[in-house]
Specification:
Elements (H helix, E strand, L loop, with lengths): L18 H20 L3 H19 L4 H22 L18 H18 L2 H12 L4 H15 L5 H19 L7 H11 L8 H14 L17 H22 L16 H7 L4 E6 L11 H8 L1 E7 L6 E2 L15 E6 L1 H10 L3 E2 L15 E7 L16 H5 L2 E7 L2 E4 L14 E7 H7 L6 E2 L15 H17 L4 H14 L5 H7 L2 H19 L2 H13 L4 H18 L2 H19 L3 H11 L10 H10 L3 H26 L1
Antiparallel strand pairs: 1-4, 1-5, 2-3, 2-4, 6-9, 6-10, 7-8, 7-9
Length: 662
């Protein structure tokens, strides 16, 4: 989640070559053959063929995009050996510079940004931001959408788009549960704005990080009077702010018409945690919330007075004005019921109904007070065995105050092939070696119990709580600020500035070095580094210039903004069917040459390509769209409906603001 600098990947199913891929291969081969008959030189013909092959491999994903990119890089290297047979004087790329991409400013910057983002997330600061939004989000769609979208947009300007979206996915789920708004009305605005946030800064997405390196590469082939300046960190911010504002306004104004209300979205309270245990032990309990009314006869009694008699088990409680009490050191058998108290109870539905009716209690339809603490990703039912040699043998759950001491609420005991449960006086039975305890517990408690020699935890497939280091917020903030200061106010290279912050995170203990390695998306690194030689070949062989001349022949007499719009439209199409990194590498040299031929600013045209590769809303091929599609129950038609309008708005706003600012 914390691999920062976004890299978009087309979602396909791996496997053998399909008939669709085979037909496409024939058509692409025919296209390459046709190009070889119309291009002016043999070098351009070969580069054109490799370019067509690259587009085919990316668009149809016969292999992974990173594998395709590395393969193309190797092919370019082999042209030095095969040059005589290919009819060219030398290789398409000098082998001395074939691997320069791996040490490029762009690649090192992306690695550093990924590590910095992982460090910030490790401190828990991103989780606190999410909790704050949950608190102020309110219950109306028109208020929730702007708050969530603006926050995600800002975070994704420095963080990988899919990482920001993944961070806010559980937040949206909780807001949906508490507000009653379907997740399908909230996830698409959040996801789209996460993508738009990548246009806020020059480190917001891989294409923008890569852009300055591509500009410097193009400068090598340009005369002195046509050299382009590189872009500053916040040069693109006016465009990004306008795009995010457009996205938010679009969903606030038109959301009721374009956002679906699906019937197949994921439940916001999770699946029934008792399914497995119902099959194995016949335990058919559910987790419910009960409110103690003012006139209830339960007021003044203790848990121990009613739990065994009515076969219910209290696992959480909350009194008005106090914190929720869940886990070790909170609930005990001498806890007193009070007016207005909210109880989290595990019980058989029949027994619970009897208990509610007997004491005039209010049963809520769903979890509200404990929707987070008792959600399936925080707690559930587990199996724990008493091993030989345990100090608990001969003692009962009541003797050791198991619920209060260990945070284990005993709801079933399996012994000698027989399962006993609440109501069978299981809490007074002395434990024997081999007893299997069926307990309701928080997952972080179960994780600690695994290290206790008195228990053997049988349940292993449960959400393990990520280790956070809130005590490292200060050093993380310091090194993030140092890196940002160096980027903004010094002339040092972006890669050096960002790597200073990344290494600071490691040296100060915010991240372990193994965690830093794990934070890096090496697929993104190889994809990016392997494509840089292709961009160089397209530029130095004259291929980019030739393609530019053909485009100029078609749109050359039109206004510059029309030519710029054509470039943006071409980039939008490419990013729907291939990696946005690949689209940027392929199209920036083309855009530079078109701009020079049309008398426009080549740096602005290059920036147009890098921004337009974020215009990926029409179909769920972007990682963010793929992430939100399942939980919200979206269909491709939903993306085409809402994303079609967003795509047009993106192009109009981008071209308009860029012409005003630049």
């Amino acid at each position: 989640m914390n691999k920062l600098a976004d890299e978009e990947i087309t979602i396909t199913k791996p496997g053998i070559i399909s008939s669709k891929q085979l037909i496409a291969a024939i058509l692409f081969a025919a296209l390459a053959g046709f190009l070889s008959t119309v291009v002016p030189t043999v070098e351009i013909a070969w580069v054109g063929a490799i370019l067509v092959l690259t587009i085919y491999l990316f668009a149809f994903e016969v292999v992974g995009v990173d594998v395709a990119a590395a393969t193309v890089m190797v092919m370019l290297g082999l042209t030095s050996l095969l040059a005589p047979m290919m009819g060219i004087d030398q290789g398409l790329v000098d082998n001395k510079h074939l691997f320069d991409g791996f040490s490029s400013n762009a690649v090192i910057s992306i690695i550093a940004v990924m590590i910095i983002g992982a460090g910030l997330d490790k401190t828990g600061i991103m989780g606190k931001v999410a909790a704050f939004i949950l608190k102020i989000g309110g219950t109306t769609e028109s208020r929730i959408i702007p708050i969530i979208s603006a926050s995600v947009g800002f975070i994704s300007s420095f963080m990988q788009n899919v990482g920001a979206a993944a961070l806010f996915l559980p937040v949206v789920s909780r807001i949906s549960a508490r507000s009653g708004l379907p997740m399908s009305r909230l996830l698409m605005p959040m996801g789209f704005t996460a993508i738009l946030g990548g246009t806020m800064t020059m480190v917001g997405s891989s294409p923008l990080i890569l852009l300055n390196d591509l500009i410097l590469t193009s400068n090598k082939a340009l005369p002195a009077d046509q050299q382009m300046n590189t872009w500053e960190l916040f040069s693109v911010t006016p465009v990004g702010v306008a795009l995010i504002a457009t996205g938010i306004i679009y969903f606030v104004v038109a959301g009721r018409y374009v956002l679906p209300k699906t019937k197949s979205e994921s439940s916001t309270v999770g699946a029934d945690p008792m399914t497995y245990f119902n099959k194995v032990y016949g335990v058919d309990f559910t987790v419910n919330e009960i409110v103690v009314k003012d006139d209830s006869d339960l007021v003044g009694q203790n848990l121990d007075d009613v739990e065994t008699s009515y076969r219910v088990r209290v696992i959480a409680s909350k009194q008005s004005g106090e914190e929720a009490r869940v886990g070790p050191g909170t609930i005990a058998r001498d806890t007193e019921f009070r007016t207005g108290m909210v109880l989290g109870i595990v019980a058989d539905p029949y027994d619970l109904s009897h208990f509610v009716e007997k004491y005039n209690l209010k049963k809520r339809r769903e979890l509200r007070t404990f929707s987070e603490s008792l959600s399936p990703n925080k707690s559930g039912i587990g199996e724990v065995v008493i091993p030989p040699g345990s100090s608990l043998i001969g003692k009962s759950a009541r003797d050791v105050w198991m619920r209060k001491t260990y945070g284990l609420a005993l709801i079933g005991l399996h012994r000698n092939g027989e399962t006993m449960r609440e109501g069978d006086d299981i809490r007074n039975m002395p434990f024997q070696a081999g007893d299997t305890l069926v307990v309701h517990t928080a997952w972080n408690v179960l994780e600690r119990i695994e290290k206790d020699r008195d228990f053997v935890v049988v349940t292993t497939e449960y959400p393990h709580e990520e280790e956070l280091r809130p005590n490292k917020i200060v050093p993380a903030g310091i090194f993030f600020s140092i890196a940002l200061f160096m980027v903004l106010f010094t002339d040092i290279r972006l890669s050096v500035a960002l790597l200073t912050g990344a290494m600071g995170m490691v040296l100060s203990g915010v991240l372990k070095i193994e965690e830093a390695y794990a934070a890096v998306s090496w697929k993104t690194v190889f994809l990016l580094a392997s494509l840089i030689p292709l961009g160089l070949a397209v530029e130095t062989s004259g291929t980019a210039k030739w393609i530019a001349e053909q485009v100029l022949f078609v749109v050359g007499d039109m206004p510059i903004w029309v030519i710029q719009a054509a470039i943006a439209l071409l980039a939008t199409f490419f990013t729907l069917v291939m990696s946005n990194v690949g689209a940027t590498v392929l199209l920036v040299p083309l855009a530079v040459n078109i701009a020079i031929g049309a008398g426009a600013n080549p740096a602005v045209f290059a920036l147009t390509v890098a921004i337009a590769t974020s215009n990926s809303f029409l179909i769920p091929t972007h990682q963010v769209n793929a992430l939100i599609m399942g939980p919200a129950g979206y269909r491709v038609a939903d993306f085409m409906k809402a994303g079609g309008v967003m795509t047009l708005l993106f192009l109009v706003v981008m071209i308009g603001v860029m012409n005003l600012v630049f």
